[in-house]
Amino acid sequence: MTAGREYKLEERQTPADVDPQQFRDIGYQLVEDIAMLLESIRKRPLTPGETVSDVRNALRAEESLPRNGTDAGQLLSEVTELLLDHSLLNGHPRYFGYISGSPAPLGILADMLASAVNPNVGAWILSPMASEMESQALRWIAELVGFPQGGGVLVSGGNVANMLGFWAARTTMARWDLRTSGMRSELGRTMRAYGSKGMHTWIEKAADLSGLGSDSVRWVDTDSEGRLNISVLQEQVESDLAAGDLPFLVIGTGGSVSTGAVDPLPALRELCDDFGMWFHVDGAYGAFAAAANEASADLKGLALADSLALDPHKWLYTPLEAGCTLVRDPKALMATFSYHPEYYHFDEEANNYFEHGLQNSRGFRALKVWLVLKHIGREGYVRMMGEDIELARRFYEIAEDHPELEAFTHSLSISTYRFVPRDLAGRTGQQQVSGYLDQLNREIQDRMEKGGQAFVSNAVLNDTYVLRMCIVNFRTTLEDVVALADITTDLGRQVDEEMRPKELIR
Ligand SMILES: Cc1ncc(COP(=O)(O)O)c(C=O)c1O
Fold this sequence. Notes:
Blueprint: H1 20-40, H2 52-59, H3 72-85, E1 95-96, H4 105-117, H5 128-145, E2 151-155, H6 158-173, H7 178-181, E3 191-196, H8 202-209, E4 217-220, H9 230-242, E5 246-253, H10 265-275, E6 278-283, H11 297-300, E7 307-310, H12 312-315, E8 323-327, H13 332-337, H14 366-401, E9 405-411, E10 414-419, H15 431-451, E11 455-461, E12 464-470, H16 478-499
Parallel strand pairs: 1-11, 3-4, 3-5, 5-6, 6-7
Antiparallel strand pairs: 2-8, 7-8, 9-10, 10-12, 11-12
The structure holds pyridoxal-5'-phosphate.
């Protein structure tokens, strides 16, 4: 016997195991608690709005690791309470912040089932059904948005999905064997990537971590609607070529993070063909909206890309984490990521997903994607996304007509706006007034984020601080967007009363 062990190894009893009957009981209770959450989500505060120390105290964050374990049932009920009482609920119908999808209930159950089977979807032999489900989910995603059936892989989210496209472009377009010699190119040329000023920050990490450096990225001016300006791009590429650089990649954004702007994707494809560059589309937010017949030709142009990033955890409404990279050339990802160590005995005929991306061992995130796609179907998605877009448009119209709100932009399911006190409405061009309005709207956002009634994020448009509402949420109704206008104006009046500098009081 070893110290602390009161059984023989022939009849091993471990603290990890849970008695099957107890597992059933606590599992049913957990499902019951989750069902209650979903049932009551509309009536719950969206967030408790607590401070960091409130949350740490609730967790008893200073406690050290317990020497001995705790009863599973007691623990699960304590942790459920902790999470339900101290979390922001992005599935709440009035969550309009950033771009986090409301998690579809089947996706929630999928994560439990995926963990129970626990396939390692790095290698086919370790995950036969799971690997095939991932392949099928990838084919369905391509079919849904009209992208050619090439290659692909599921990843953690939009950042990594874009980076895979970036790295595939870098390896394919380098004029030397970049995988073995690295960035020490004998050509001594700076590889350059191009995209609009509205590009998401992933590009900075990608350029930095791949050895190009973030200065190598060209952030191209946009038009008044936030779309990349093609002629400025062309001039920039020509001047970089003249300077001896190696332009290798253009990134088109299909739904920008701030305003949902969609770049002219077909025109970007043509430019890439003219200059021999890789065309990547960041459709992390907007790509799924291309499934609708009435989607713009610009958005549908994502089908022309060499690589495309999408985020099932945004507009497919799966729980976090689920991102996706699709590539036109089925071999492009393998040509970038595959190695064959001697200690792997895997059938090379099958899809071994560790060869298609960064991860080696991989979880079964495909299950939630596969399940929600099959549960909801194409028509269901087109209808839900269409409604999200319509609700964001309705909010834009409400803001346009409201005497204390100023509407800025609407594209896809994002609208931007701000609160402007009635008496300042005619003076927004004055420097002091515009500075005050920035401050006022920042404070409105701050209080709304903590208040628990609704949640918006922000954008900065031409140096103006605006509030930004985004709907990737199948629970949001017209009543919720009407309420958002009221919540904003109530807070706006209150904050204005407290903060207005004397010089601006007439
Ligand atoms: C256009 C765009 N690209 C990339 C990302 C990054 O996605 P993730 O947060 O899933 O990594 C986002 C996130 O909002 C986005 O809107």
